[in-house]
Every structure is written in structure tokens, then in C-alpha cells.
Write a structure and sequence with these properties.
InterPro entries: Ig-like_fold (IPR013783). The structure is a single chain. Strand 9 and strand 10 form a beta hairpin. The chain has 3 domains: about 80 residues, Immunoglobulin-like; about 80 residues, Immunoglobulins (Immunoglobulin-like, Sandwich); about 170 residues, no CATH class. It is built from 5 helices and 28 strands. About 15% of the residues lie in helices and about 35% in strands. The strands form 8 sheets. Strands 5, 6, 9, 10 and 11 form a 5-stranded antiparallel β-sheet that branches.
């Protein structure tokens, strides 16, 4: 009796299970009932890895080759996209060229849909691919040719650099050609510039170009007195000294209170910042009455402002010993370019090495060609201050 019940029970159970997956009609025909795709461990790519018009990959478990993918934007506009490859653990598809913003992702299989957990973020970029920028230096006011695919009429190239005055960018219309696009540099551009392509609200940074500079170029609020071997970076000297011809470096201090400065090319800006920071700290602590309201040499340089049309250059500093020596080497040429450097000794931002807090280096501009640069008392000497800036 128990055996008979068991035999009867097994077919009944099997029938119940089957009816969970199939529709059972009076003709005893069985039709599959689709279910929404079950997808787990979904991981969207980073926004920085997405480029409109290129392939993107969503990782996860449970994808199938028959899956259809839709992107649904923030206005609930749904767009079917081209799926290029599917495995159980990822799905690849082409991001629409005009995509931008946040999207929900819908996977459809056999008419049933699943909305994936998370947000697919597409940057608002200009979809330009296969970009090749000039590898050689470009002369001032020269032509820039960019190879690439995806440029359109009306695209703008915006050039910018950290050494231009705050907020200054150069917007230049692009001209299309067979290889991509081109434009001519306007006057005033120099050094290493980033290029942004702008199309409406979309922007894409496509890299950098180098606009060649040479010693003697008049730009950036002064005249170039030194350039590196690549003619990409350099230094600009102010058109004249600042303050009066007889300025003090600052107070003499204990060795432990020295700012800790360098002498090499490239150290002047950090030297200047450190000197002013240390002076302000010590003045607050020691309350030197003789220095109240006095601008030290480094501060005079930081406060320098050169107006050039609508621009204002404010990133000046006191040169290091080696930087000021480079100014001395070309002082005759600078004079021909209109730079007024009266015969004088001039402060550098390089303090004495070792355990000395009372002295800093100067450079003697009374000399014609002989380079003299020695230590002198920070507060005992009153000499010239000549600002420079870097690019």
C-alpha cells in the first residue's frame, strides 16, 4: 500500500513542478513562460573609461547571447543600443555618439525586462577618436594641424595653461580638412598648452601642444631670459625692479628660523613662498617692531602685478641665485628689449647654506660680464629687487 501511494505521489509532484514553468491547457500542450533576466554582481565601468561612439563593458553574472540592451536617460527616453559581445560574465555594447549624462540600463530577454542596479554614467564629451597632435614645437602664430575622426563644423579649440592669468583661455574656431582639423595660433600663446575641443555643452581634452619660446621673446608681462632645451618651459623677467633701489631682504634670524631655500634653477618660487611664510610666522611670534608694516623683498615680488590689456600677471617671485645669474648673463640683450635693470646689487631668494640665518646671496649687476654672487646681511644691506615668473 505504501509503495502504491509513493508511485502515485511522484507523478503528481512532477506535474505540479512542471506547471510552474509551463502553461497547462485543456489540450495538454506545454508552452514556456518567459521570466525576467536574473543578473547578479553588476559592475558598471567608470565614467572616465567611457567614450561616446566606443565600446563599453558591463560586468556581471547571468548575461545571455539573446539579451537586448536599452539605455534610459533622465527624461525616460529609452534607446536600444548595439550589443557587440556577450558572455555569461559580461556584456559589451557601443555607447551612442550623442550620449551624455546618467542612464539606467535595461536588459530584455524574450520580451521580459530587468533594470540593472546602479547608474551608467557617460561624460558629456566631443566624440573624437584616433587623435594625433603635433609632436614638434609650433612657432608663435603658427598653424596647428590635428589628425583625428569626428570633428564637425562649428567645433572650437580652447587653449589654456596654468601660467596664463586666471580665467584666460583662447577660443579658436577649427577648420576641417581631410585629415581632421586645423587652426592658427593667435598672438600671445606660448609654452605647453592643453587643448579642449568644445561643441555646445560638450568638451573633450585631447592633449597638449608646445608653442616654442626663445630667449628675448617679449611675452607674459616681461621678457624671456632663459628657456629649457625643448624651448617649452622658461622664465620671464619683469620690465624693471620693484620697490626702491634700496630694499632689505628681511630680518636676520637664528639658524633654526631660516626658511630653508635652494640655489638652483627651479627653486625660486618655492623659496619665495617659504620666506614669506616664515617671516609672517616669526613676526607674529616675536613682534619685531622695526618690521611692522615693512614689505620684505620676497613679499614685494609676490605683490607685483603687471597689466597687459585685459590681463594681469600676478605670479611673480624672487629669483634663486642661479636664476638671477641667468638674468645677469643676458642683461645687455634685455636692455635692448626695453627691460630697465639699473646698475645695482640685487637680492636672490637663496639663503646661506648650513647653520647661517643672517645672510642671503646677492648678484652684482654693476659688473659688465664678471659674475659676482656672494653672501650679505639680510637686514644690513639695502639693494635691488627684481621679480621673475615661470612658464
Amino acid at each position: 500500500m505504501k509503495t502504491s501511494l509513493k508511485k502515485l505521489f511522484i507523478p503528481l509532484l512532477s506535474g505540479l513542478i512542471a506547471c510552474n514553468f509551463y502553461s497547462c491547457d485543456s489540450d495538454n500542450e506545454h508552452t514556456a513562460i518567459p521570466i525576467a533576466p536574473i543578473l547578479k554582481e553588476i559592475k558598471f565601468p567608470s565614467e572616465n573609461d567611457i567614450t561616446p561612439g566606443q565600446v563599453a563593458q558591463i560586468n556581471g553574472l547571468g548575461f545571455a547571447k539573446e539579451d537586448v540592451l536599452y539605455l534610459n536617460d533622465e527624461t525616460n527616453k529609452k534607446e536600444k543600443v548595439e550589443v557587440t559581445e556577450v558572455t555569461d560574465s559580461y556584456l559589451k555594447f557601443i555607447v551612442p555618439l550623442e550620449a551624455g549624462g546618467n542612464y539606467s540600463v535595461i536588459i530584455e530577454r524574450a520580451g521580459k525586462q530587468t533594470i540593472l542596479n546602479g547608474t551608467f554614467k557617460v561624460p558629456f564629451v566631443v566624440p573624437i577618436i584616433d587623435v594625433v597632435l603635433p609632436s614638434n614645437n609650433i612657432p608663435a602664430k603658427g598653424k596647428v594641424e590635428i589628425r583625428g575622426k569626428g570633428f564637425e563644423d562649428g567645433d572650437i579649440a580652447t587653449l589654456y595653461a596654468s601660467f596664463y592669468p586666471e580665467g584666460v583661455e583662447y577660443n579658436i574656431p577649427l577648420a576641417l580638412n581631410d585629415e581632421g582639423a586645423e587652426f592658427t595660433l593667435p598672438e600671445g600663446l606660448y609654452g605647453v598648452n592643453s587643448i579642449m575641443i568644445i561643441r555646445g555643452e560638450r568638451k573633450s581634452n585631447i592633449g597638449t601642444i608646445t608653442i616654442e619660446t626663445n630667449v628675448g621673446d617679449k611675452l607674459g608681462g616681461g621678457v624671456v631670459f632663459w628657456v629649457d632645451a625643448a624651448k617649452a618651459h622658461g622664465y620671464i623677467v619683469n620690465m624693471s625692479n620693484v620697490g626702491t633701489p634700496t630694499e632689505k631682504f628681511g630680518p636676520e634670524v637664528d639658524p633654526s628660523d631660516a626658511a630653508g631655500t635652494g640655489q638652483s634653477i627651479g627653486s625660486g618660487y618655492a623659496n619665495t613662498q617659504n620666506i614669506v611664510r616664515k617671516f609672517n610666522t616669526l613676526q607674529s611670534a616675536n613682534n619685531w617692531p622695526e618690521w611692522q608694516g615693512v614689505k620684505i623683498a620676497a613679499q614685494l615680488c609676490l605683490d607685483n602685478r603687471v597689466n597687459d590689456g585685459d590681463f594681469a600677471y600676478t605670479d611673480w617671485f624672487l629669483p634663486s641665485r642661479e636664476e638671477l645669474i641667468e638674468v645677469f648673463k643676458v642683461k645687455s640683450m634685455l636692455a635692448e628689449k626695453g627691460v630697465n635693470i639699473p646698475a645695482n646689487n640685487y637680492w636672490t631668494s637663496s639663503e646661506a647654506d648650513g647653520n647661517t640665518g643672517w645672510a642671503a646671496y646677492y648678484v652684482n649687476f654693476y659688473e659688465e660680464t664678471n659674475i659676482i654672487s656672494e653672501l650679505c646681511s639680510k637686514s644690513g644691506w639695502t639693494i635691488g629687487v627684481l621679480p621673475i615668473r615661470a612658464y
